[in-house]
Write a structure and sequence with these properties.
α1 packs across α2. The radius of gyration is 17 Å and the shape is globular. The protein is built from eight helices and eleven strands. The protein is of the alpha/beta class. 31% of the residues lie in helices and 18% in strands. The strands form three sheets. A seven-stranded mixed sheet has the order 1-11-10-9-2-8-3. A hairpin with a 7-residue loop joins β10 and β11. The relative contact order is 0.23.
């Protein structure tokens, strides 16, 4: 894939414009967008900037973090606190994401989404109220390892880091997760499946492969 340099501001504007021209795959009233990337790539920061650009365009937006849908500590740490296989397949409650985030946004859904589920600091349910997303609104789900679960995304952005950059930019205490991201590359190949790939090896100078025609 040939990548070209771009600023974050220009990239955000281009993505927002593309999303406003995207139609839902199932004909429903809510668009579902993924901002996929390792924590070192700051997918939450990019999703929030994109949300602001969409709101300026008059779109209702709900930003949800996959890291707010963790499974309880007893399940995450069943095989130790630093098990990359569990991080890959057992840390994030994908069933709850399906049930609480995607099901309400099906064509006949209520549009009332649970914005978060679990507080890892207290290891208890957050008990947050549901948030109503108006018809025509956009869900922005951000976090790691989002692709490959058959989530019904209408548009996907992958923030790519080379293995060397991922290791360099991952905090030392979290480097035990690196094998999980290597497995993700091997099994899911997010750079091949995402609609847009953004190289973020240098966070000051992103590069991307451009946009396919809407």
């Amino acid at each position: 894939m040939r990548l070209e340099a771009i600023t974050w501001d220009r990239l955000t504007e281009a993505l927002a414009g593309r999303i406003t021209r995207t139609e839902t795959a199932d004909g429903g009233p809510w668009l579902r967008v993924a901002v996929d990337g390792a924590p070192a790539a700051a997918p939450g920061e990019r999703a929030r900037a994109l949300a602001e650009a969409l709101r300026v365009r008059g779109r209702a937006v709900l930003v949800v973090g996959a890291e707010d849908f963790l499974r309880p500590a007893s399940l995450r740490y069943e095989y130790g606190r630093e098990d990359p296989e569990t991080y890959y397949s057992g840390w994030f409650d994908t069933g709850a994401l399906w049930r609480e985030v995607f099901t309400p946004l099906e064509p006949d859904g209520t549009g009332r989404v649970l914005p978060d589920l679990w507080d890892p600091a207290t290891d208890r349910a957050t008990r947050s109220p549901r948030r109503a997303l108006a018809p025509g609104g956009v869900l922005l789900l951000h976090g790691p390892l989002l692709l490959g679960h058959w989530f019904p995304f209408d548009f996907t952005v992958h923030l790519r880091l080379s293995p060397a950059a991922l290791r360099r930019r991952t905090e030392e205490g979290a480097r035990w997760t690196l094998p999980a991201f290597a497995r993700y590359e091997d099994e899911v190949a997010p750079a091949d499946t995402a609609d847009v790939v953004v190289r973020t090896d240098d966070p000051r100078h992103p590069a991307w492969g451009g946009l396919a025609q809407a």
